[in-house]
Amino acid sequence: MGVNDRNKNLFEGLWPLPNGVSYNSYLIDDESVTLIDTVEVDFFETYLRNIRAVIGDRNIDYLVINHMEPDHSGSLALIKKYYPDIVIVGNKKTFDMVDGFYGITGENYVVVEGSELNIGYHKLTFAMIPMVHWPETMVTIDTTEHVAFSGDAFGSFGALNGGVIDTQIRTDEFWREMERYYSNIVGKYGGPVQKALQKLKGFEIDAICPTHGPVWTVEIPRVMEMYDRLSKYDTEEGIVICYGTMYGNTERMAEAIARAASEAGIKNIVMYNVSKTHHSYIIADVFRYRGLIVGAPTYNAGLYAEMDELINEIANRDIKKRYLGWFGSFSWAGQAVKKIGEYNNTRLHFEPVGEPVEMRQSMKEDDYNRCEALGQAMAERLIADRNQ
Ligand code: FEO
Q1: What is the per-residue pLDDT across 127-152, written as a single tens digit (0 to 9) for each?
Q2: Fewest CB atoms within 10 A around its CB: which of 3, 6, 103, 165?
Q3: Pairing state of beta strands 3-5 and 21-23?
Q4: Confidence (pTM)
Q5: What is the rounded average pLDDT for all residues in the chain?
Q6: Ligand 1: which residue has its CA nearest to atom 3?
Q7: Which residues form ligand 1's pocket by a CB distance below 6 Å?
């Protein structure tokens, strides 16, 4: 029943949507007509038309709310207006939010772990997956046809351009966008995601219906593997080098580091100017690669703002098991290198690799040598892991 949003620039006001995004909602046309999640309220007219194309003037008996974030619950109040007898199905935490966001109280159906709802041919059960990525999140499982309605879990950025199911579409663009979605929106909650995966292993599942992106069927093993890897903070060999630069001097440091790491045998090296590339893409690569090297100029007796923000964003996601190298520059009083070191001690807690490099004004031979040594040290640290 879902809708596509190709107009919004930033999801949650934060995340760029080059390929748009879908808000998925599902309807089970059974003896008791059951709607699962809704869509963002701006799309209500299209949503209602989609529903009526299937059920005409018939009533909807149940609305299951797996997740209360307003991109999915936004149409709840209007659905309730059009279908006043609808019974809302959710857990205790859901209903606190139904009241808080929409002022809706009244008849509802409160489920707990393992509750069952018989809607005719289909039997539904419910698995709580708190903090994936809100406290009330749950998965609804149709145990008759082995379908998991998973909320944001296994969701992806990217609108659905006609096809909905993975067998109907070219899925290539969705994999990176799924990683970017996971790492930025769900990524802080690796532990809860691991618990959810363990729980879902207890069910036979032939289709996963998330609230964003394609419905997964034949690709379920790849989707599960991705979630397992990302939530364990597992990595590939590779280095993300990101830098702030005003006039190109700090960028030259990054180039020297990257060349040395490449010459030492690392193939996967990605480089980002933090002022140019949206941080969500950088964070997705920090989830992918084990090595991270960051550098920036000193600015206002502190760390260059874009780098300060990026490091904060990385720290907020509690990413584990990474190696960190760092560098920076200054014109008359150095602070950037010191600040990055303090960030690592207090927030990131990554394993430091190599000697941090601080450069005054522009690159001299000694600066090149120290940058190359940093790149080489990171490469050697990664290569040492190859046989483990
Ligand atoms: Fe797609 Fe957490 O909302």
Answers
A1: 999 999 999 999 999 999 999 999 99
A2: 103
A3: antiparallel
A4: 0.96
A5: 97
A6: 69
A7: 67, 69, 71-72, 133, 152, 211-212
